[in-house]
Specification:
Elements: E1 2-13, E2 16-27, E3 31-35, H1 42-50, E4 57-62, E5 65-66, H2 72-78, E6 80-83, H3 95-106, H4 112-116, H5 124-136, H6 152-164, E7 170-174, H7 182-199, E8 202-207, H8 210-216, E9 219-224, E10 227-233, H9 234-239, H10 241-246
The structure holds adenosine-5'-diphosphate and magnesium ion.
């Protein structure tokens, strides 16, 4: 059964068609890629899935429920986690503290301000869940260092971990490799692979970096100027002569 199904998603900005009837699906536990050059409409699509933008036409369903009228914050509760193209971490806080805050938010203990001020005792459960996440992501050695002193690659992993603390069934990642060097991108790929393997999390990877997508996902969708120009098994899509000539020639 498909976990996420987008059908005919269309979005226009002041006369420009950023998305023209785009359809895509992600199965339970599946790793799927959405690629395309800058300006192809990837982030617009991502935001339509999250409800941050309202499509002009089309539908998005998640686990069988129509999401069209579901507000953004409720989508997280339904089991959709996400990270954005731009890193958004709290200066002065460590990876461990980011995860504890996320565990607490999920448990409904709220009190973000209290957390930022260092108040509110960390429960055993919050501590254990944060520790598990640090280990899953290989962040043990930097667990108690402030994030502003860490590399961009580590920062990305912290963002992924924070999103995973809500135990999503689907994780949406918008260009997680942006700003990372090759070594950092390789670590990210390996980490996403182990997240999928150990937790069964389905992942939709929205990416410009063709190599990352190629090494990671079983199925891929190709967007160009708001139009889906190819989709299918990763090896078939990358082998497709027309796709290579028309579009991937300058990327592969
Ligand atoms: N809020 C907006 N207002 C007007 N145009 C936008 C807006 N967001 C995106 N666009 C346009 O939509 C197109 C797709 O952009 P985007 O989804 O950011 O592409 P990508 O993420 O693939 O680089 C671009 O032409 C962009 O200029
Ligand atoms: Mg983008």
């Amino acid at each position: 059964m498909s976990l996420l199904v987008a059908e005919g998603v269309t979005k226009k900005f002041a006369g420009i068609t950023a998305l023209d009837s785009v359809s895509l699906d992600v199965g339970e536990h599946e790793l799927v890629g959405l690629i395309g050059p800058n300006g192809a409409g990837k982030t617009t699509f991502f935001n339509c899935l999250l409800g941050l933008l309202r499509p002009d036409a089309g539908t998005v369903t998640f686990a069988g429920s129509d999401l069209t009228r579901v507000p953004v914050h409720r989508r997280a509760r339904l089991g959709i986690g996400r990270t954005f193209q731009r890193i958004e971490l709290f200066v002065g806080m460590t990876p461990r503290e980011h995860f504890v805050v996320a565990a607490r938010a999920r448990a409904g203990r709220g009190g973000l301000v209290a957390d930022l001020l260092g108040r509110g005792r960390v429960t055993r459960e919050e501590h254990d869940r944060a520790q598990e996440m640090l280990e899953l992501l290989g962040l043990g050695p930097v667990a108690d260092k402030k994030v502003e002193g860490l590399s961009l690659g580590i920062g990305r992993l912290v963002e992924v971990g924070r999103a995973l603390m809500t135990e999503p069934r689907l994780l949406l990642l918008d260009e997680p490799s942006s700003g990372l060097d090759r070594a950092e991108t390789a670590v990210l790929a390996e980490t996403l692979r182990s997240v999928q393997r150990e937790r069964g999390t389905a992942i939709l990877l929205v990416e410009h970096d063709v190599d990352l997508v190629r090494s990671l996902v079983g199925r891929v969708f190709v967007l160009d100027f708001g139009v889906l120009i190819a989709s299918g098994r990763t090896e078939d899509v990358f082998a497709d002569a027309a796709v290579r000539r028309a579009y991937l020639g300058d990327l592969v």
